[in-house]
């Protein structure tokens, strides 16, 4: 067939996810971060069925002095469109939105998003230490000297939600319990043994009210997502998953500028994404939500409109987040149990696409009534301490 057009038809081209893949994940002591990038990229390209020559756009962050130039060079790519936006865990949803806009406008035809990290292995080998903050320049200089760590900021926000709405420790703990239950059938998950609410509550205190199991794990791993114009879809190996809508939002860096600790920027990015997709939360069959801490899942569900503000505790405690629950959330086990090598947002897109394709596997695949596959999925990433949010809605 003729090559893809470089200009949009009828204004804008439709954009699909045509390839997704994970690198080796969990405990990965040998490969470098560059090698994990390459492994994930090769697998995603193979998943798509496209030739590497189709890739003319590249997006990456978190590795190299000139990201994404160094990573593109390592992969042997010479893109004519690039993005290195770095806004923490929501980076990949924001990049996906940028890439989709570029493809729709005819500025690129196929954009590869790729990430890889050896965060766990580096600490184990003493190649790096744990970082307590993102730095002490600019506005952050007024908080960092007092030991105001990332986990403590989320802990403060969780306490405020508990004070305002009566959210309980047991309700927060149930988020971790359900994430672990979802991970139990995921062979790629780092932790699969079941846990109980009591075990979460009795664990080592990290930052009040968060015990260890309220917090994400530290792992190694990478993944890749390939987006392409509708012109290329006939040449792909699998049915496309379409980008239906996206939204981004930034909020604050200093806690003093956060107007309400109980509201995340997902309240804005989600509203925009739903408006652009022409859908509502009731249309979503499953959600992948950034979960560095249990509170993130709870408050993001509220802000995306799956329940009213203040009702997140009651919403999550009824088993609704399980794979066979009312709203399956983080069906791979999330950052709390499956993997969390750093900026985890790209993993959310991989899992959403696999579920929509029906590729999650026995005991893990989400189905609708009558055994039908899900049709609409949402991925919502969070950066910093609710500093930024990117929400992407996908559909078959």
* Beta-strand residue percentage: 15-25%
Q: How can the largest sheet be summarized?
A: 9 strands, mixed
Regions with little confidence, pLDDT below 50 for 5+ residues: 1-9
SSE order: EHEHEHEHHHHEEEEHEHHHHEE
Report the structural category.
alpha/beta
Mean pLDDT comes to 94
Figure out the total of helices: 12
Radius of gyration (CA) equals 20 Å
Helix content, binned percent: 25-40%
- Side by side, the strands of the main sheet go 3-2-4-7-1-8-11-10-9
- DSSP summary, beta strand count: 11
- Morphology: globular
Q: What is the terminal separation in angstroms? A: 24 Å
Q: Which tags fit this structure?
A:
single chain, alpha/beta, 396 residues, disordered N terminus, two-stranded antiparallel ribbon
């Amino acid at each position: 067939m003729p090559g893809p057009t470089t200009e949009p038809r009828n204004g804008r081209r439709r954009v699909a996810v045509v390839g997704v893949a994970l690198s080796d994940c969990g405990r990965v002591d040998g490969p470098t971060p560059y090698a994990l990038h390459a492994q994930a990229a090769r697998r995603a390209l193979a998943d798509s069925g496209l030739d590497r020559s189709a890739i003319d756009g590249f997006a990456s962050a978190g590795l190299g002095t000139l990201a994404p130039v160094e990573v593109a060079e390592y992969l042997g790519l010479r893109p004519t469109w690039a993005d290195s936006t770095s806004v923490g865990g929501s980076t990949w949803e924001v990049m996906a939105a940028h890439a989709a806009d570029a493809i729709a406008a005819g500025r690129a035809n196929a954009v590869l998003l790729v990430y890889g990290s050896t965060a766990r292995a580096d600490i184990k080998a003493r190649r790096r230490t744990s970082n307590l903050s993102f730095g002490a320049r600019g506005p952050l200089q007024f908080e960092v000297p007092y030991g105001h760590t990332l986990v403590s900021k989320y802990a403060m926000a969780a306490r405020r939600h508990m004070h305002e709405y009566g959210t309980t420790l047991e309700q927060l703990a149930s988020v971790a319990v359900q994430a672990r239950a979802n991970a139990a059938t995921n062979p790629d998950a780092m932790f699969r043994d079941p846990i109980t609410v009591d075990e979460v509550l009795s664990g080592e205190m990290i930052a009040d009210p968060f015990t260890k199991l309220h917090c994400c794990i530290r792992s190694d791993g990478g993944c890749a997502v390939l987006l392409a114009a509708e012109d290329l879809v006939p040449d792909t190996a699998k049915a496309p998953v379409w980008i239906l809508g996206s939204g981004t939002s930034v909020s604050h860096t200093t806690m003093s500028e956060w107007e309400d600790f109980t509201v995340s920027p997902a309240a804005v990015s989600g509203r925009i994404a739903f408006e652009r997709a022409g859908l509502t939360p009731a249309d979503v069959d499953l959600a992948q939500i950034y979960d560095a801490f249990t509170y993130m899942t709870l408050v993001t569900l509220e802000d995306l409109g799956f329940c009213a503000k203040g009702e997140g505790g009651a919403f999550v405690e009824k088993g609704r987040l399980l794979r066979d629950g009312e709203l399956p959330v983080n069906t791979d086990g999330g950052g709390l149990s499956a993997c969390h090598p750093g900026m985890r947002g790209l993993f959310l897109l991989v899992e959403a696409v696999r579920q929509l394709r029906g590729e999650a596997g026995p005991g893990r695949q989400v189905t609708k009534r009558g055994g039908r596959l899900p049709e609409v999925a949402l991925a919502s990433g969070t950066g910093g301490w609710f500093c930024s949010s990117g929400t992407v809605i996908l559909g078959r």
